[in-house]
Amino acid sequence: MQVLCKPTDATPDVHCPMCGQGFLLYWERSSRDQQDDTLPNILQALREHHSYPGLSPHPGAPFNIPNWTGLPQFSAAALLGGAAL
Ligand SMILES: [Zn+2]
Q1: For a FRET experiment, which of 17, 26, 63, 73 has its CA 20 to 30 Å from that of 79?
Q2: How far, in Å, is the centroid of ligand 1 from the Cα of 21?
Q3: What is the mean pLDDT of residues 17-26?
Q4: 58 or 69, which is more confident
């Protein structure tokens, strides 16, 4: 399932396990079970951000998990999850 992650300092849905950066999550599907199944993939992707050298490991702009080659605001997760980008 596709998820849109949007960096936030407010009230995040998930925190990066490495640095604590918060993210709002916009889901392609609203099923709670599917969201729970997908959460480990999100945490893994956030961890992988830290495996590349750089000053800021996470993108400053919204991004999709799994990777989406189009514009984030046109992804299914953004449209179906109601993200206001
Ligand atoms: Zn992090």
Answers
A1: 17
A2: 5
A3: 96
A4: 58
- How confident is the model over 64-75, as pLDDT tens digits? 998 777 777 778
- The phi-psi region of residue 24 (left if phi > 0; otherwise alpha if psi is between -120 and 50; otherwise beta) is beta
Could you tell me how many residues make up the chain? 85
C-alpha 23 to ligand 1 mean position (Å):
10
How many A from CA of 34 to the centre of ligand 1? 23
Domain boundaries, the chain: 3-81
Q: Which residues contact 83 (CB under 8 A, 6 or more apart)?
A: 4, 6, 26, 62, 73, 77
43 Cα: distance to centroid of ligand 1 (angstroms):
9
The continuous run of DSSP H or E covering 45 comes out as: helix 32-49
Contacts of 40 (CB under 8 A, 6+ apart): none
